[in-house]
Amino acid sequence: MVISSDNQTLASGSWDETIKLWQLDSGALLNTLSGHTGSVRSLAITPDSQTLISGSFDQTIKLWHLNTGALINTLSKDIGAVSALARQGAVAHIALSPNAEIIVSGGDDGIIQLWQLATGQPISILTGNLSCIYSLAVSPNHQILAAGNINGAITLWQLDTGACLGVYQVHSAPIMATVFSPDGQRLISGSTDGTIKSWYVEADTLQALPIDTLEYSDAVMSLTLSADGKTLAAGGADGTIKIWQCD
User: Fold this and answer.
1) How confident is the model at residue 82 (pLDDT cuts 50, 70, 90)?
2) What is the pTM for the complete model shown?
3) Which CATH number covers residue 14?
4) Of 77, 82, 157, 163, which has fewest CB within 10 angstroms of its CB?
5) Mean pLDDT, rounded, for 189-217
6) How far apart are CA 127 and CA 145, in angstroms?
7) Which of helix, strand or coil describes residue 81?
8) How many domains does the chain have?
9) How many CB atoms lie within 10 A of CB 118?
């Protein structure tokens, strides 16, 4: 799930290969987008609330006009020599840099790939991660990339250099969602262990102890924060969406 920066639209992706757009305040269904041939695992919206980006198990990333639902572009993992190591894995998660210049994708091949949003061209790949990647988040200052793995660990990377900053075992099951707070001081993670945890991020490291833990009734599959950081929405394997007001 993802909430547009104008707090008007919530987008949700599904195993049925579709994307649904909802009016955030009323919950009314606005549109259903079809085009993927695999489950839609991850979504992002550009800061201007104009473009929706979707990552799918069909190994593609699609760009859509948020208002009209029209398809803009499809990025395939098999384009360009830079993608040679990443041709077999599904796109389990995508993230958009806060300056809306770079799309980050990762999947079951354990490889992180960077793309130019404007051109759709691949930039580079980050290797060295040995676990399937189920979630990604980029810090507001564009410096830190957080990857949630199948083994319940979070890996931090320096985005511009590709250097690995550390691996932190924070959950007991796969981490399906990670999101930074707007000030970049917290990283929130959601897991199939049924918990949502909030962590301090200081000096490019993750604190060993969580600030807070929220219990969910089932596996946590997605998380999103509103642009002001005051509303946290979580989607669970039980088919529910739960919303918290954050301090």
Assistant:
1) very low
2) 0.76
3) 2.130.10.10
4) 163
5) 78
6) 13
7) helix
8) 1
9) 9
